[in-house]
Structures are given as structure tokens and as C-alpha cells.
Amino acid sequence: MKYRFFYTKPVIIILCCVAMSILCICVVLVVLTHKNNSKTTDDVLRITADTNVCVVTKYSCGHMAQYTTSEYTGYTEDMLRQIANCKITCFSIDKVTMEFSTEKCCENHFLLMLAAENTLAIFSTDKKPLADAQIMEIVFETSVISENEYMRLKQGIIFDSLEEINSYIESMET
Ligand SMILES: [Zn+2]
Fold this sequence. Notes:
The protein is of the alpha+beta class. Among the domains are: 52-101, no CATH class; 110-173, no CATH class. It has helices spanning 2-40, 77-81, 147-155, 162-173; strands spanning 52-58, 64-69, 86-91, 95-101, 110-116, 119-124, 137-139, 157-159. The strands form 2 sheets. Strands 2-1-4-3 form a 4-stranded mixed sheet. A 4-stranded antiparallel sheet has the order 7-6-5-8. It starts with a helix and ends with a helix. The structure holds zinc ion. Zinc ion binds at residues 59, 61, 63, 105-106, 108-109.
């Protein structure tokens, strides 16, 4: 009995080790074949050169801008979803629509800002100075406006047209 006990214990341990090894090898093989399969049988839909890829930008002013691009050829839907802030609203072999939302206003507006003490400046919304230097700077007596309005002007107020800026300044001065 004693002899048998000492004989069987190592055998069981060895058998367990062998079984574990076989299990490990099996797991590795399954993982490898799965990897190979997903590589070879790539039936995931990809953007081709013929796909109409439309990139839409939604601005905070409510306006939208869009353009088509070929820069995403070869991309899958999952790859596009990795792009920050990108929302896919359509993904087919013919058409892909990517949407980006931004807190910014589109370029079809004007930004009125306090440039210096008693001086207002008008910029296009992307803060590039306007080509026409005549409307760039406006002398404006800031002491007549409320502190709240002063802070708003310091941040910059967005207007849809130069006419609106004119009437705003007129209303502030009276
Ligand atoms: Zn706009």
C-alpha cells in the first residue's frame, strides 16, 4: 500500500501536467486559427475608391458644412468609429456619412470683440481679421455700457451680419 501510494502520487502529478499542457496548446491553437481566419476571410465592409464619403460639420450656430473625401479609402466602420467626435450616420458600400459637431460658429458670422480700451474690432468667426481694414476697428466708449455687456464684449459677441453689429453699437451708445 505504502509503495503504491508513493508511486501513484507523482504519476498523477505528471498526468495533470500533461493534461494542462495539452489544454494550453489547444487554447493557443484555437486562438491562432481564429486569428488567421479573421485575417484571411475579411468580409468586413470597407470603403472603396468608389464610395461617396461625405464629411459633415455641424456648427453651434445651426449651420452645416460638408465635403466629400477619398482619404478614408480602406477604412472599416469600426476604424471610423475610432476617430474622435466622429458620428457615423450612414455606412454602405455606396455612401458613408461622417458627422462632426463643434462648439464653434461657422465662418458666415462676425465676431465683435473688445480689442483694447474703447476699441472694438470685428473678426470673421474663425478670428481671422477681415480683409477690409476699414471695418476692423471701431472707437467705442466702453464707460457707457454695463459691466455685463463689457464682459460679453471682452469674450466676443457673434453676429450674423455687419448690419446687426451696426445696430448693436447704435443701441449701446444711446
Ligand atoms: Zn453659421
